[in-house]
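Q: What structure does this chain adopt?
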Amino acid sequence: MRKNGQKVLKNRMKKDSKATRIVTVICLCWAAFVALVPLVWLLLSSFKKDPMARPGFMLPESIYLEGYISTFRDLHVMRYFGNSLLISFVSVVISIVMISMSAYVVARLDFKGKKLVNIMLYSTMFIPATALTYPVYNLVNKLHLYDTRGALILIYSCSGLAVSFFVIKNYYMNIPKEMEDAARIDGCGYVKTWQKVIFPMARPGIMTAGVLAFLNNWNEYYWASLVLIDREKLTVPALLSTFTTSFRTNYNGLFSAMVVIILPPVILYCVFSKFFVEALSGGAVKG
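A:
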């Protein structure tokens, strides 16, 4: 009787695991379909001379590359790539250094007001950018940073702190306490412990937060269009608005520029994808 019951249980578990796999595959296929459809539509439209004449997934009558050529030749898009790269990289370095050190204090040390600090940081996730428009705009003007790259670096360095803090802090909490105690026995202080022990072990989580912050800064449009006026200083997303005027929109140029613009984030993710896997799985930390 017991053997028969065990066989029945094993068969049920096999059926459940197969059903779970099938549902998982279906969900992943649907997610991939939803993610890829807009990209395929955008790529096809960028090769059409008039995307509005042959909308949707209709194949172009002939491959039209003038939009890509004008993006590099007339718009000098590499200049705006440089602006976006400089602003995004500098702001990410500043924010990640601040957050990684503050997250270490919150995750590993006990002090009064610790819960309050957590609540204050996480609450910033629910504040829309439009609600901060006047105070931030006023601060930028008072610091005489309006229409400068420094203004965007200041704004981006203080934006999205909660997400980066959440990722890095949770990764710190998975690091065994014994590693920290061993460093203290060897004479390391808080700063040296973070530098020599905690930071190397938490590198996947820190890199994940850095890549997410970089992608967010690269794609940001609201503050870039509000703070910068000089065309020479515009970032890549703000450049897209120049394709639309009061009378017409250059759809071929717009779609071609969008394809060129989304390539760097895709390449960046492909290069650092292993850090995402390690950070999400926590496999880099062994107790």
